[in-house]
Amino acid sequence: MTPAARISAAIEVLADLIQRRRPAADALKDWGLARRFAGSKDRAAVASLVYDALRRRASSAHALGEETPRALVLGMLVSQRGLRPDEIAALFNGQNHAPAPLTEFEVAGLATFDLSAAPGWVRADVPEWLWPSFVEAFAEHAVAEGEGLSARAPVDIRTNRLKTGRDALRAALSHLQPEMGAWSPDALRFQPGPDGRGPTLQSEPAFFAGEFEIQDEGSQLVAALAGVKPGDTVIDLCAGAGGKTLALAALMGNEGRIFATDLDSRRLSPLHDRLTRSGASNVEVRVPRSRGHDALSDLAGTADLVLVDAPCTGSGTWRRNPDAKWRVRPGALAERIREQAEVLDRAAGLVRPGGRIAYITCSVLPEENDVAVEAFLERHPGFALVPMRDLLSAGEVDYGLLARFATQSGLQLSPARTGTDGFYLSCLAAPG
Ligand SMILES: C[S@@+](CC[C@H](N)C(=O)[O-])C[C@H]1O[C@@H](n2cnc3c(N)ncnc32)[C@H](O)[C@@H]1O
Protein backbone atom coordinates (compact mmCIF):
# COMPACT_ATOMS: atom_id res chain seq x y z
CA MET A 1 0.00 0.00 0.00
CA THR A 2 1.18 3.53 -0.69
CA PRO A 3 1.49 5.99 2.21
CA ALA A 4 -1.64 7.75 0.91
CA ALA A 5 -3.61 4.48 0.73
CA ARG A 6 -2.63 3.76 4.34
CA ILE A 7 -4.02 7.16 5.30
CA SER A 8 -7.31 6.31 3.53
CA ALA A 9 -7.41 3.04 5.47
CA ALA A 10 -6.82 4.84 8.77
CA ILE A 11 -9.68 7.25 7.99
CA GLU A 12 -11.92 4.26 7.28
CA VAL A 13 -11.00 2.54 10.56
CA LEU A 14 -11.54 5.76 12.53
CA ALA A 15 -14.97 6.20 10.92
CA ASP A 16 -15.89 2.68 11.99
CA LEU A 17 -14.72 3.02 15.57
CA ILE A 18 -16.33 6.45 16.03
CA GLN A 19 -19.68 5.51 14.44
CA ARG A 20 -19.98 2.21 16.23
CA ARG A 21 -18.25 3.34 19.45
CA ARG A 22 -16.06 0.27 19.42
CA PRO A 23 -12.49 -0.25 20.62
CA ALA A 24 -9.79 0.68 18.11
CA ALA A 25 -8.28 -2.81 18.35
CA ASP A 26 -11.57 -4.37 17.21
CA ALA A 27 -12.00 -1.95 14.30
CA LEU A 28 -8.40 -2.55 13.19
CA LYS A 29 -8.82 -6.30 13.42
CA ASP A 30 -11.96 -6.24 11.26
CA TRP A 31 -10.27 -3.99 8.73
CA GLY A 32 -7.36 -6.42 8.49
CA LEU A 33 -9.62 -9.46 8.13
CA ALA A 34 -11.49 -7.82 5.26
CA ARG A 35 -8.24 -6.83 3.50
CA ARG A 36 -6.10 -9.92 3.38
CA PHE A 37 -3.87 -8.26 0.75
CA ALA A 38 -2.53 -5.90 3.41
CA GLY A 39 0.86 -7.06 4.68
CA SER A 40 2.13 -6.80 8.23
CA LYS A 41 3.92 -3.51 7.54
CA ASP A 42 0.70 -2.03 6.12
CA ARG A 43 -1.28 -3.18 9.14
CA ALA A 44 1.29 -1.75 11.54
CA ALA A 45 1.37 1.55 9.65
CA VAL A 46 -2.44 1.86 9.60
CA ALA A 47 -2.65 1.03 13.32
CA SER A 48 0.01 3.61 14.05
CA LEU A 49 -1.93 6.29 12.11
CA VAL A 50 -5.15 5.41 13.96
CA TYR A 51 -3.55 5.48 17.41
CA ASP A 52 -1.67 8.70 16.66
CA ALA A 53 -4.95 10.29 15.49
CA LEU A 54 -6.60 9.25 18.76
CA ARG A 55 -3.76 10.77 20.79
CA ARG A 56 -4.61 14.21 19.37
CA ARG A 57 -8.34 13.85 18.92
CA ALA A 58 -9.52 16.99 20.72
CA SER A 59 -6.83 19.34 19.41
CA SER A 60 -7.23 18.12 15.81
CA ALA A 61 -11.01 18.58 15.96
CA HIS A 62 -10.53 22.11 17.29
CA ALA A 63 -7.89 23.14 14.76
CA LEU A 64 -9.78 21.69 11.77
CA GLY A 65 -13.18 22.91 12.98
CA GLU A 66 -14.89 19.50 12.80
CA GLU A 67 -14.57 16.10 14.46
CA THR A 68 -14.64 13.94 11.34
CA PRO A 69 -12.24 11.02 10.85
CA ARG A 70 -10.53 13.04 8.10
CA ALA A 71 -10.06 16.00 10.44
CA LEU A 72 -8.54 13.75 13.11
CA VAL A 73 -6.03 12.38 10.62
CA LEU A 74 -5.25 15.79 9.11
CA GLY A 75 -4.64 17.34 12.54
CA MET A 76 -2.46 14.44 13.59
CA LEU A 77 -0.33 14.71 10.45
CA VAL A 78 0.50 18.27 11.54
CA SER A 79 0.78 17.94 15.32
CA GLN A 80 2.14 14.41 15.65
CA ARG A 81 3.97 13.77 12.39
CA GLY A 82 5.13 17.33 11.68
CA LEU A 83 3.98 17.43 8.02
CA ARG A 84 3.57 20.77 6.21
CA PRO A 85 0.24 21.65 4.55
CA ASP A 86 1.73 21.20 1.04
CA GLU A 87 3.04 17.74 1.97
CA ILE A 88 -0.41 16.79 3.24
CA ALA A 89 -2.08 18.14 0.08
CA ALA A 90 0.25 15.94 -2.00
CA LEU A 91 -0.94 12.86 -0.09
CA PHE A 92 -4.63 13.82 -0.30
CA ASN A 93 -4.77 13.77 -4.11
CA GLY A 94 -7.70 11.37 -4.68
CA GLN A 95 -5.70 9.04 -6.94
CA ASN A 96 -4.98 5.31 -6.52
CA HIS A 97 -6.75 4.83 -3.16
CA ALA A 98 -5.47 8.15 -1.77
CA PRO A 99 -7.97 10.22 0.24
CA ALA A 100 -10.06 12.78 -1.65
CA PRO A 101 -8.42 16.18 -2.27
CA LEU A 102 -8.55 18.72 0.54
CA THR A 103 -11.57 21.00 0.73
CA GLU A 104 -11.11 24.76 1.05
CA PHE A 105 -12.24 24.48 4.67
CA GLU A 106 -9.58 21.86 5.37
CA VAL A 107 -6.88 23.88 3.59
CA ALA A 108 -7.75 26.89 5.75
CA GLY A 109 -7.70 24.80 8.95
CA LEU A 110 -4.29 23.36 8.10
CA ALA A 111 -2.91 26.78 7.20
CA THR A 112 -3.81 28.35 10.53
CA PHE A 113 -3.69 25.30 12.85
CA ASP A 114 -4.12 27.51 15.87
CA LEU A 115 -4.74 26.17 19.37
CA SER A 116 -3.83 29.36 21.24
CA ALA A 117 -7.47 30.25 22.02
CA ALA A 118 -8.50 26.66 22.71
CA PRO A 119 -9.58 25.62 26.20
CA GLY A 120 -7.06 23.76 28.35
CA TRP A 121 -8.63 20.32 27.86
CA VAL A 122 -8.32 20.73 24.08
CA ARG A 123 -4.68 21.79 24.18
CA ALA A 124 -3.99 18.93 26.60
CA ASP A 125 -6.02 16.42 24.56
CA VAL A 126 -7.82 15.28 27.70
CA PRO A 127 -11.57 14.48 27.85
CA GLU A 128 -13.45 17.62 28.89
CA TRP A 129 -15.21 15.93 31.83
CA LEU A 130 -11.84 14.94 33.34
CA TRP A 131 -10.27 18.38 32.99
CA PRO A 132 -11.14 19.52 36.56
CA SER A 133 -9.33 16.43 37.88
CA PHE A 134 -6.27 17.29 35.79
CA VAL A 135 -6.22 20.85 37.03
CA GLU A 136 -6.60 19.62 40.60
CA ALA A 137 -3.69 17.19 40.12
CA PHE A 138 -1.32 19.42 38.18
CA ALA A 139 -2.50 23.05 38.50
CA GLU A 140 -0.65 25.26 35.99
CA HIS A 141 1.14 22.21 34.53
CA ALA A 142 -2.09 20.44 33.53
CA VAL A 143 -1.71 21.18 29.79
CA ALA A 144 1.90 19.98 29.73
CA GLU A 145 0.89 16.81 31.60
CA GLY A 146 -1.90 16.12 29.10
CA GLU A 147 0.56 16.66 26.24
CA GLY A 148 2.95 14.22 27.90
CA LEU A 149 0.21 11.60 28.06
CA SER A 150 -0.57 12.20 24.36
CA ALA A 151 2.96 11.46 23.14
CA ARG A 152 4.25 8.08 22.05
CA ALA A 153 5.76 5.88 24.74
CA PRO A 154 9.17 4.21 24.79
CA VAL A 155 9.47 0.52 25.64
CA ASP A 156 11.09 -0.15 29.01
CA ILE A 157 12.42 -3.39 30.37
CA ARG A 158 13.36 -4.44 33.88
CA THR A 159 16.58 -6.42 34.25
CA ASN A 160 15.86 -9.57 36.22
CA ARG A 161 18.46 -9.47 38.97
CA LEU A 162 17.84 -13.12 39.71
CA LYS A 163 19.49 -13.93 36.38
CA THR A 164 21.76 -11.09 35.26
CA GLY A 165 22.87 -7.50 35.77
CA ARG A 166 21.87 -4.40 33.81
CA ASP A 167 25.29 -3.88 32.18
CA ALA A 168 25.45 -7.48 30.96
CA LEU A 169 21.89 -7.26 29.64
CA ARG A 170 22.64 -3.98 27.92
CA ALA A 171 25.58 -5.63 26.16
CA ALA A 172 23.39 -8.61 25.16
CA LEU A 173 20.83 -6.23 23.62
CA SER A 174 23.33 -3.71 22.19
CA HIS A 175 22.09 -4.36 18.63
CA LEU A 176 18.79 -2.71 19.69
CA GLN A 177 20.56 0.34 21.15
CA PRO A 178 19.09 0.41 24.64
CA GLU A 179 19.37 3.53 26.78
CA MET A 180 19.86 3.46 30.54
CA GLY A 181 16.69 4.15 32.53
CA ALA A 182 16.82 7.54 34.22
CA TRP A 183 15.61 6.36 37.65
CA SER A 184 15.45 2.64 38.21
CA PRO A 185 18.81 0.81 38.49
CA ASP A 186 17.26 -2.12 36.62
CA ALA A 187 15.68 -0.20 33.70
CA LEU A 188 16.70 -0.14 30.05
CA ARG A 189 14.75 1.89 27.50
CA PHE A 190 14.07 1.61 23.76
CA GLN A 191 12.75 4.59 21.85
CA PRO A 192 9.83 3.95 19.46
CA GLY A 193 10.60 3.65 15.74
CA PRO A 194 8.93 5.70 12.97
CA ASP A 195 5.81 3.52 13.19
CA GLY A 196 5.53 4.23 16.93
CA ARG A 197 6.50 0.75 17.98
CA GLY A 198 9.58 -0.46 19.82
CA PRO A 199 11.68 -3.54 18.98
CA THR A 200 10.14 -7.01 19.25
CA LEU A 201 11.91 -7.88 22.46
CA GLN A 202 10.00 -11.08 23.09
CA SER A 203 11.96 -12.85 20.38
CA GLU A 204 15.34 -12.09 21.98
CA PRO A 205 17.29 -15.02 23.49
CA ALA A 206 17.70 -12.97 26.69
CA PHE A 207 13.92 -12.84 27.01
CA PHE A 208 13.56 -16.62 26.73
CA ALA A 209 16.33 -16.93 29.32
CA GLY A 210 14.26 -14.82 31.74
CA GLU A 211 16.83 -12.05 31.92
CA PHE A 212 14.26 -9.26 31.58
CA GLU A 213 10.58 -8.39 31.68
CA ILE A 214 8.85 -5.66 29.73
CA GLN A 215 7.77 -3.17 32.37
CA ASP A 216 7.40 0.59 32.33
CA GLU A 217 10.05 2.29 34.45
CA GLY A 218 7.31 3.89 36.57
CA SER A 219 5.97 0.46 37.42
CA GLN A 220 9.50 -0.62 38.36
CA LEU A 221 9.89 2.46 40.56
CA VAL A 222 6.68 2.04 42.54
CA ALA A 223 7.52 -1.63 43.15
CA ALA A 224 10.99 -0.62 44.40
CA LEU A 225 9.57 2.14 46.62
CA ALA A 226 6.97 -0.12 48.25
CA GLY A 227 9.63 -1.00 50.80
CA VAL A 228 9.94 -4.77 50.47
CA LYS A 229 12.90 -6.58 52.12
CA PRO A 230 14.41 -10.05 51.68
CA GLY A 231 12.69 -12.38 54.15
CA ASP A 232 9.40 -10.46 54.23
CA THR A 233 5.96 -12.01 53.96
CA VAL A 234 4.25 -10.17 51.11
CA ILE A 235 0.76 -10.38 49.70
CA ASP A 236 0.23 -9.11 46.15
CA LEU A 237 -3.51 -8.70 46.29
CA CYS A 238 -4.15 -7.56 42.70
CA ALA A 239 -1.39 -9.54 41.03
CA GLY A 240 -2.98 -9.90 37.58
CA ALA A 241 -0.34 -11.19 35.16
CA GLY A 242 2.28 -10.53 37.81
CA GLY A 243 4.34 -7.56 36.63
CA LYS A 244 4.81 -6.28 40.20
CA THR A 245 5.01 -9.79 41.70
CA LEU A 246 8.06 -10.57 39.57
CA ALA A 247 9.68 -7.25 40.44
CA LEU A 248 9.13 -7.87 44.17
CA ALA A 249 10.55 -11.40 43.97
CA ALA A 250 13.71 -10.03 42.35
CA LEU A 251 14.02 -7.25 44.96
CA MET A 252 13.70 -9.89 47.69
CA GLY A 253 16.40 -12.04 46.08
CA ASN A 254 13.94 -14.95 46.34
CA GLU A 255 14.10 -14.74 50.15
CA GLY A 256 10.84 -14.63 52.09
CA ARG A 257 7.40 -15.38 50.66
CA ILE A 258 5.04 -13.70 48.22
CA PHE A 259 1.41 -14.75 47.99
CA ALA A 260 -0.04 -13.57 44.68
CA THR A 261 -3.75 -13.50 44.02
CA ASP A 262 -6.41 -11.61 42.09
CA LEU A 263 -10.17 -11.33 42.15
CA ASP A 264 -10.21 -12.61 38.57
CA SER A 265 -8.51 -16.01 38.41
CA ARG A 266 -8.12 -15.83 34.60
CA ARG A 267 -5.85 -12.83 34.91
CA LEU A 268 -3.39 -14.89 36.95
CA SER A 269 -2.88 -17.48 34.18
CA PRO A 270 0.18 -15.89 32.49
CA LEU A 271 1.90 -15.62 35.87
CA HIS A 272 2.80 -19.33 36.07
CA ASP A 273 4.93 -19.26 32.90
CA ARG A 274 6.44 -15.92 33.80
CA LEU A 275 7.51 -17.23 37.21
CA THR A 276 9.19 -20.25 35.64
CA ARG A 277 11.04 -18.13 33.10
CA SER A 278 12.18 -15.59 35.70
CA GLY A 279 13.52 -18.09 38.25
CA ALA A 280 11.39 -16.54 41.01
CA SER A 281 10.94 -19.36 43.51
CA ASN A 282 9.39 -17.62 46.51
CA VAL A 283 5.97 -16.94 44.99
CA GLU A 284 2.86 -18.92 45.80
CA VAL A 285 -0.03 -18.18 43.45
CA ARG A 286 -3.36 -18.39 45.26
CA VAL A 287 -6.06 -18.82 42.62
CA PRO A 288 -9.58 -18.14 43.94
CA ARG A 289 -11.83 -21.15 43.30
CA SER A 290 -14.77 -18.94 42.40
CA ARG A 291 -15.73 -15.28 42.52
CA GLY A 292 -16.06 -14.39 46.18
CA HIS A 293 -13.87 -17.28 47.38
CA ASP A 294 -11.26 -16.00 49.82
CA ALA A 295 -7.99 -17.63 48.82
CA LEU A 296 -6.12 -15.82 51.62
CA SER A 297 -8.27 -16.71 54.66
CA ASP A 298 -5.28 -18.28 56.47
CA LEU A 299 -3.14 -15.16 56.05
CA ALA A 300 -5.17 -12.59 58.02
CA GLY A 301 -2.94 -10.24 59.97
CA THR A 302 0.34 -11.83 58.78
CA ALA A 303 1.80 -9.73 55.96
CA ASP A 304 4.73 -7.38 56.39
CA LEU A 305 3.60 -5.79 53.14
CA VAL A 306 0.33 -5.94 51.24
CA LEU A 307 0.71 -4.58 47.72
CA VAL A 308 -2.53 -3.18 46.31
CA ASP A 309 -1.93 -2.54 42.61
CA ALA A 310 -5.49 -1.38 42.34
CA PRO A 311 -7.93 -1.59 39.42
CA CYS A 312 -8.12 1.94 37.98
CA THR A 313 -9.01 3.96 34.88
CA GLY A 314 -5.45 3.60 33.58
CA SER A 315 -5.30 7.34 32.86
CA GLY A 316 -1.55 7.19 33.52
CA THR A 317 -1.08 4.81 30.58
CA TRP A 318 -2.85 6.82 27.89
CA ARG A 319 0.43 7.05 25.93
CA ARG A 320 0.23 3.30 25.42
CA ASN A 321 -3.53 3.15 24.95
CA PRO A 322 -4.84 6.44 23.52
CA ASP A 323 -8.17 4.81 22.69
CA ALA A 324 -8.88 4.29 26.42
CA LYS A 325 -8.60 8.05 26.99
CA TRP A 326 -11.78 8.76 25.06
CA ARG A 327 -13.63 5.61 26.07
CA VAL A 328 -13.49 6.11 29.84
CA ARG A 329 -16.86 7.23 31.27
CA PRO A 330 -17.90 8.76 34.62
CA GLY A 331 -19.66 5.50 35.55
CA ALA A 332 -16.45 3.53 35.07
CA LEU A 333 -14.50 5.96 37.24
CA ALA A 334 -17.13 5.62 40.00
CA GLU A 335 -16.93 1.83 39.75
CA ARG A 336 -13.12 1.84 39.99
CA ILE A 337 -13.30 4.08 43.07
CA ARG A 338 -15.69 1.59 44.70
CA GLU A 339 -13.34 -1.31 43.87
CA GLN A 340 -10.33 0.61 45.19
CA ALA A 341 -12.03 1.10 48.56
CA GLU A 342 -13.02 -2.58 48.64
CA VAL A 343 -9.55 -3.86 47.93
CA LEU A 344 -7.90 -1.44 50.38
CA ASP A 345 -10.27 -2.56 53.13
CA ARG A 346 -9.39 -6.18 52.35
CA ALA A 347 -5.68 -5.30 52.58
CA ALA A 348 -6.23 -3.79 56.05
CA GLY A 349 -7.28 -7.24 57.34
CA LEU A 350 -4.20 -8.97 55.90
CA VAL A 351 -1.38 -6.73 57.11
CA ARG A 352 0.32 -7.57 60.42
CA PRO A 353 0.45 -5.03 63.26
CA GLY A 354 3.14 -2.50 62.27
CA GLY A 355 3.16 -3.78 58.68
CA ARG A 356 2.47 -1.75 55.58
CA ILE A 357 0.03 -1.40 52.69
CA ALA A 358 1.50 -0.08 49.43
CA TYR A 359 -1.34 1.40 47.38
CA ILE A 360 -0.55 1.80 43.68
CA THR A 361 -2.50 2.96 40.64
CA CYS A 362 -1.54 3.70 37.05
CA SER A 363 -3.72 6.80 37.18
CA VAL A 364 -3.15 10.53 37.50
CA LEU A 365 -6.67 11.32 38.76
CA PRO A 366 -6.78 12.50 42.39
CA GLU A 367 -10.10 10.68 42.91
CA GLU A 368 -8.28 7.36 42.49
CA ASN A 369 -5.16 8.45 44.35
CA ASP A 370 -4.99 10.94 47.24
CA VAL A 371 -8.76 11.01 47.68
CA ALA A 372 -8.93 7.20 47.87
CA VAL A 373 -6.09 7.13 50.43
CA GLU A 374 -7.63 9.86 52.54
CA ALA A 375 -10.99 8.06 52.52
CA PHE A 376 -9.21 4.85 53.64
CA LEU A 377 -7.53 6.70 56.51
CA GLU A 378 -10.92 7.99 57.63
CA ARG A 379 -12.35 4.47 57.60
CA HIS A 380 -9.24 3.06 59.36
CA PRO A 381 -8.02 5.76 61.75
CA GLY A 382 -5.28 3.50 63.22
CA PHE A 383 -3.35 3.56 59.95
CA ALA A 384 -0.90 6.36 59.16
CA LEU A 385 0.84 7.60 56.04
CA VAL A 386 4.48 6.55 55.76
CA PRO A 387 6.35 9.88 55.36
CA MET A 388 7.60 10.46 51.81
CA ARG A 389 11.23 11.03 52.91
CA ASP A 390 11.21 7.55 54.54
CA LEU A 391 9.88 5.97 51.36
CA LEU A 392 12.42 7.65 49.13
CA SER A 393 15.48 6.93 51.28
CA ALA A 394 14.74 3.40 52.51
CA GLY A 395 16.18 1.31 49.68
CA GLU A 396 19.51 0.76 47.97
CA VAL A 397 19.02 3.89 45.85
CA ASP A 398 18.34 7.36 47.26
CA TYR A 399 15.29 8.57 45.38
CA GLY A 400 15.30 11.98 47.10
CA LEU A 401 14.97 13.77 43.75
CA LEU A 402 11.45 12.36 43.44
CA ALA A 403 10.35 14.32 46.53
CA ARG A 404 9.22 17.21 44.31
CA PHE A 405 6.56 14.91 42.87
CA ALA A 406 4.99 14.26 46.28
CA THR A 407 1.26 14.90 46.60
CA GLN A 408 -0.78 15.36 49.76
CA SER A 409 -0.70 11.63 50.52
CA GLY A 410 1.61 9.96 48.03
CA LEU A 411 3.88 10.21 45.02
CA GLN A 412 2.73 10.97 41.47
CA LEU A 413 4.91 10.00 38.52
CA SER A 414 4.00 10.98 34.95
CA PRO A 415 5.45 11.28 31.44
CA ALA A 416 6.02 15.02 31.92
CA ARG A 417 7.57 14.60 35.37
CA THR A 418 9.61 11.42 35.22
CA GLY A 419 9.36 10.25 31.62
CA THR A 420 7.40 7.22 32.85
CA ASP A 421 3.76 6.24 32.76
CA GLY A 422 1.57 8.02 35.29
CA PHE A 423 1.93 5.87 38.41
CA TYR A 424 0.82 6.78 41.93
CA LEU A 425 2.10 5.27 45.19
CA SER A 426 1.09 5.79 48.78
CA CYS A 427 2.26 3.67 51.70
CA LEU A 428 0.13 3.18 54.82
CA ALA A 429 1.53 1.88 58.10
CA ALA A 430 -0.73 -0.40 60.14
CA PRO A 431 -1.12 0.33 63.83
CA GLY A 432 1.63 -1.46 65.79
C1 LIG B 1 -3.70 -2.85 37.69
S1 LIG B 1 -4.24 -4.48 37.50
C2 LIG B 1 -2.92 -5.41 38.19
C3 LIG B 1 -1.64 -5.40 37.40
C4 LIG B 1 -0.56 -6.30 37.99
N1 LIG B 1 -0.35 -6.10 39.39
C5 LIG B 1 0.78 -6.11 37.26
O1 LIG B 1 1.67 -5.44 37.79
O2 LIG B 1 0.90 -6.68 36.18
C6 LIG B 1 -5.49 -4.58 38.73
C7 LIG B 1 -5.99 -5.98 39.04
O3 LIG B 1 -6.88 -5.89 40.15
C8 LIG B 1 -7.80 -6.94 40.06
N2 LIG B 1 -8.90 -6.66 41.00
C9 LIG B 1 -9.99 -5.89 40.84
N3 LIG B 1 -10.73 -5.86 41.97
C10 LIG B 1 -10.10 -6.63 42.87
C11 LIG B 1 -10.36 -7.04 44.21
N4 LIG B 1 -11.46 -6.59 44.87
N5 LIG B 1 -9.49 -7.88 44.82
C12 LIG B 1 -8.39 -8.31 44.18
N6 LIG B 1 -8.09 -7.98 42.90
C13 LIG B 1 -8.93 -7.16 42.27
C14 LIG B 1 -8.14 -6.98 38.59
O4 LIG B 1 -8.64 -8.24 38.21
C15 LIG B 1 -6.78 -6.66 37.94
O5 LIG B 1 -6.12 -7.85 37.57
Q: Can you give a write-up of this model?
A:
The protein is an alpha/beta fold and 432 residues long. The protein has 3 domains: 116 residues, no CATH class; 60 residues, Alpha-Beta Plaits, CATH 3.30.70.1170; 213 residues, Rossmann fold (3-Layer(aba) Sandwich), CATH 3.40.50.150. It has 20 helices and 12 strands. The strands form 2 sheets. Strands 5, 6, 7, 8, 9, 10, 11 and 12 form an 8-stranded mixed beta sheet that branches. A 4-stranded antiparallel beta sheet has the order 2-3-1-4, with helices on one face. Helix 9 crosses helix 10. S-adenosylmethionine binds next to helix 14 and helix 17.
Tertiary shape: globular
Kindly report the CATH topology of the largest domain: Rossmann fold
Main sheet: strands, sense, barrel? 8 strands, mixed
The DSSP helix count reads 20
Q: How many domains comprise the coordinates?
A: 3
Overall CATH class of the largest domain: Alpha Beta
Low-confidence stretches: none
Can you name the CATH architecture of the largest domain? 3-Layer(aba) Sandwich
Question: Which cofactor or ligand species appear?
Answer: S-adenosylmethionine
- What number is the mean pLDDT? 96
The N- to C-terminal Cα distance equals 66 Å
- Share in β-strands: 5-15%
User: Over the alpha carbons, how many angstroms does the gyration radius reach?
Assistant: 23 Å
Query: What is the number of strand segments?
Result: 12
- The percentage helix is 40-55%
Question: What is the CATH homology-level superfamily of the largest domain?
Answer: Vaccinia Virus protein VP39
Please state the structural category. Answer: alpha/beta
